[in-house]
Amino acid sequence: MSAKSNTAGLDVRRAAAQRLQLVLTGAPFIPFGADDFEDGRERALANRLVTTALRRHGQINQVLVSVLDKGMPKRAGLFEPAMRIGIAQLLFMPEQGAHAALHLAVETIKRDRRASRFAKLANAALRSVQRQADDWPLRVQDLVPEWMFKRWTKQYGETQAHKMAELLLAQPPLDLVFKSGVEPQTGANGFDGLAALLPQSFRLATRDASVADLPDYADGQWWVQDLSSTLPARLAGSLVGKKVLDLCAAPGGKTAQLCDMGGLVTAVEIEPDRLSRLKENLERLNFHAEMLEADATQLDGLDEFDVVMLDAPCSATGTFRRHPEVLWHRKESDFAHRAALQSEMLGSAAKKVAKGGQLIYCTCSLEPEEGENQIEQFLKQHSEFALAPIKSDELAGWAGPIDLNGYVRALPCVELPNGCTGGTDGFFAARLQRVA
Ligand SMILES: C[S@@+](CC[C@H](N)C(=O)[O-])C[C@H]1O[C@@H](n2cnc3c(N)ncnc32)[C@H](O)[C@@H]1O
């Protein structure tokens, strides 16, 4: 970090407050890397401070309301993020020590030009939090915005809504997909604590090492992909020798699966930077696909395909375990807007499916507007397509994420194969067949 301060731990708190500030203004959280902190322990602490503040964002809101009588001061620079980091430590990271948490939060505020005039207020408010540290009524439903918790309850029932919110309390595990025919190495130089989820999908018990330091990374034997995100490609069946169109492809988890399954893949992505990442990822894995920088709503020049996969851009509310900020960045009115684009993309994708071929539509969203409603509307307008319901034997007998209509509706709290814990991303997928 630039301009090191001489107070132990202050640089880490200031950097964490600055990063959290960006997230509070609408940016996604980008974890600190080696460029930010050379020291691995400092880096890990800075990331933990921000992620704890984000996971507990809703509960911290309640605490802030209670200790700031006049509300959050306006135009106060790092005041709000430093307070959030301070409260996160006082209530949820007690091992950091209450005195240090309080002192470093107030110091961060004192050293920020806009925030400094509120240092006394911060001190008094944080002391109040500390005094009542064991008495805050921390409710699980407060982890999620009220409107969203109501939505989850309406859609999936209160028990499921609670279970989903609870997943915010822990760091999500890391899932890996191994190339077909590759057995993960365990033992001295291999993986430690790898649990089997579904064929080729495994869950790492701990994620202390960075991804690139895990065994066989450079050899391209596996890639990172959350379990539920692997489900859509599994629905395509055998792809050997088949032409596959992968729309909205970067960073390429599904592209990798489709290549691994033997498909002749054309991958389409609109964002040049993301397309470059897709290329790098496939190169590391030694997979080959034709890659096009193009808009999935403008596919006129392309032929028809046996399988078209549309992993449409969406609200990503299903990824809240890994990206808690999505819960706070979304508004209920966002869903209709995104649904209109998804519907346009579905129409465009449908034109590229050969007769008898499959269209697989998926989103990492928990919202019916981006899932079930989308498919119902599509089928009303496209009599040349029929729903091809998904069966549990296609997912190695795992029935948990399949609903009564034959859609994949994976809830983050779904019971996982082999008793694994840690949840999964929320995902929706439907398989449609072109029948005329
Ligand atoms: C949900 S992500 C896809 C994840 C990817 N399929 C995977 O498995 O790794 C959605 C992607 O769609 C891309 N995208 C958004 N609008 C697009 C469009 N009109 N045409 C093509 N790609 C688009 C985004 O840049 C983003 O990379």
UniProtKB/TrEMBL annotation:
Checking CDD domains in the record gives: AdoMet_MTases
Q: Is Transcription regulation among the key words of this record?
A: no
Q: Does the keyword S-adenosyl-L-methionine apply?
A: yes
Q: Name one GO biological process term.
A: regulation of DNA-templated transcription
Q: Which SUPFAM superfamilies match?
A: NusB-like (SSF48013), S-adenosyl-L-methionine-dependent methyltransferases (SSF53335)
The lineage's top-level taxon is: Bacteria
Pfam families tied to this protein: Methyltr_RsmB-F, NusB
SAM-dependent MTase RsmB/NOP-type domain residues: 148-435
- What are the protein's UniProt keywords? Methyltransferase, RNA-binding, S-adenosyl-L-methionine, Transferase
Enumerate the active-site residues.
C364 (nucleophile)
Q: Which InterPro entries does the record cross-reference, listed alphabetically? A: MeTrfase_RsmB-F_NOP2_cat, MeTrfase_RsmB-F_NOP2_dom, NusB-like_sf, NusB_RsmB_TIM44, RCMT, SAM-dependent_MTases_sf
Q: Which residues bind S-adenosyl-L-methionine?
A: C248, A249, A250, P251, G252, G253, K254, E269, D295, D311
An example Gene Ontology molecular-function term = RNA methyltransferase activity
Family per record: Belongs to the class I-like SAM-binding methyltransferase superfamily. RsmB/NOP family.
In Swiss-Prot or TrEMBL terms, this protein is called 16S rRNA (Cytosine(967)-C(5))-methyltransferase
Q: Which source organism does the UniProt entry give?
A: Maritalea myrionectae
* Lineage, top ranks: Bacteria, Pseudomonadati, Pseudomonadota, Alphaproteobacteria, Hyphomicrobiales
